[in-house]
Write a structure and sequence with these properties.
14-stranded antiparallel β-barrel, 478 residues, disordered N terminus, mainly beta, elongated, two-stranded antiparallel ribbon
Length: 478
């Protein structure tokens, strides 16, 4: 068991900002979904799997489109605030990021066949829903009296000639005299030989996962609603990280400071299929279920890095990596969703649903790389996840008041290593007129994450994330 925990902990190093390769952190990042969409949906915790009548449901349970009786157009701008508090070796720091987004743009067309027909409605929907937001800034700082990132570079370099070192990390350290040969071309030493450095790292991340949906639905006798969605998600993620070590006590020989900067950009697009059904048991009770196929992504990563060292005698050295790029595929896990809702006349709505996804089923692939180690890490590091969403709405005249909650269980196999449990609390207000409507929502989400700055570092960085999202939906029926 001890060996397994060490192995899993070592894998968490990759979450810290990547070592310029496609890995299990990518698989989890692009497999996780935190439904955005319209303000009404967010205000009710995303619990629209059995309610329908909202454009977000096209990405959750496409049968929800069967509720529509008229054409509708929606657009949802939003403001996103991310706050990250970091703890590193008994020192706390924090950072914040502001982002403006569009969470939803969509149109639904509804057609009513002849009255005597079993089919009471046919619907077509087309638009975009937000599935996840990756934007945050973080900063951590702390003293390390035990070792330095130079120890990692030394361990990685030993036994290898300089021309065989990694162009994106260890060779940069060699080119800037953070490590140097000693007694031969495969033996190395460093001016930092036993820690005593002040370490810091800042990360600026941006990006999102959005899904273009094409949905077809039908209403059978006002009892059974069916629907299917062809989804085309598209991803963009950028990460700028800056790692720094300094000698604040001027106690490390000739060494003064080193700066190691890295840049990552990921772009990808894919496709998936969703099928759903909603059954009206009575006028006031509905049940529903949906199935989401895996998403089949085509991804491209671009990355680069540079390292600069400063010495006490005033000399400094800088080395830049080449531009790296790689094309690969990612298959995310399938999902199943089921729920129940209660419609109390035209006064109130109560909805709850459960979603299951197993992140161990994610797979990385490419024409030139087998990803055996990375896919094995996915199996060992991750687990199945349960997502629970609940929402409530009460109406008074033209106004609606809403509350919601969503919970995502820990996606990691061992809670001793990491706990990615996520809670979201939300609320909102809606106003309905004859042909127009306006909704506003606020959601607050919190979760935690641990990672290691580099291999061999003795203690992790612990991040606590708080995300605030304010959404405004403008809609028109025609």
């Amino acid at each position: 068991m001890k060996k397994i925990n060490i192995f899993l902990g070592f894998l968490l190093i990759m979450i810290s900002g990547k070592l310029f390769s496609q890995n299990e952190a990518d698989a989890l990042r692009y497999s996780q979904i935190n439904y955005g969409g319209t303000a009404r949906s967010v205000a009710m915790g995303g619990a629209f799997g059995t309610l329908g009548g909202d454009f977000t449901s096209l990405s959750i349970n496409p049968a929800g489109i069967g509720i529509y009786k008229s054409k509708e157009l929606t657009i949802t701008p939003s403001g996103y605030i991310s706050y990250v508090k970091s703890h590193y070796n008994n020192n706390s720091t924090d950072d914040i990021k502001y982002k403006f987004n569009f969470n939803n743009v969509g149109i639904v067309l509804a057609f009513t066949p002849q009255k005597e027909s079993v089919c009471k409605g046919i619907q077509i929907g087309f638009g975009v829903n937000r599935l996840n937001n990756y934007s945050y800034n973080s900063y951590n700082e702390g003293a390390n009296s035990i070792n330095s990132i130079a120890d990692y570079f030394l361990a990685d370099a030993q036994g290898n000639q300089p021309q065989n070192l990694s162009d994106f990390s260890t060779k940069l350290a060699f080119n800037t005299y953070l490590i140097d040969t000693s007694g031969g071309l495969t033996s190395y030493v460093s001016p930092i030989n036993r820690g005593g450095v002040l370490q810091s790292k800042s990360i600026m991340a941006s990006g999102s996962n959005n899904e273009l949906v094409l949905t077809f639905g039908g209403n059978l006798n006002d009892k059974v609603l069916i629907g299917g969605t062809i989804g085309f998600p598209f991803v963009r993620y950028t990460e700028n990280s800056s790692y720094e070590e300094t000698d604040p006590g001027d106690s490390i020989g000739s060494f003064k400071q080193m700066d190691y900067n890295s840049y990552l950009e990921t772009e990808g697009s894919g496709y998936n299929f969703k099928l759903g059904i909603i059954y009206k048991i009575t006028e006031w009770m509905r049940i529903g279920a949906s199935f989401h196929s895996p998403t089949f992504y085509s991804m491209k990563d671009k990355w680069s890095s540079d390292l600069t060292t400063y010495f006490d005698d005033g000399t400094q050295y800088k080395s830049e990596s080449p531009k790296g790029s790689f094309v690969y595929q990612l298959n995310t896990p399938f999902r199943v969703n089921g729920g129940i809702s209660f419609v109390i006349k035209k006064i109130a709505l109560i909805s709850g649903e459960y979603e299951f996804v197993d992140y161990r089923n994610a797979r990385l692939r490419s024409a030139t790389e087998r990803f055996v180690g990375e896919n094995k890490a996915i199996d060992n590091l991750y687990a199945s996840q349960s997502n629970v969403r609940a929402g409530f709405e009460i109406k008074y005249d033209i106004a609606s008041f809403r509350l919601g909650y969503s919970y995502s269980s820990n996606p990691y196999a061992s809670k001793n290593i990491n706990d990615g449990t996520r809670h979201s609390f939300s609320g909102g207000l809606g106003l309905r007129f004859n042909k127009y409507f306006f909704d506003v929502a606020y959601s607050y989400s919190l979760w935690k994450e641990k990672y290691y700055l580099y291999p061999l570092v003795p203690f992790p960085v612990s991040n606590s994330y708080n995300a605030h999202n304010i959404l405004f939906t403008f809609g028109v029926k025609f």
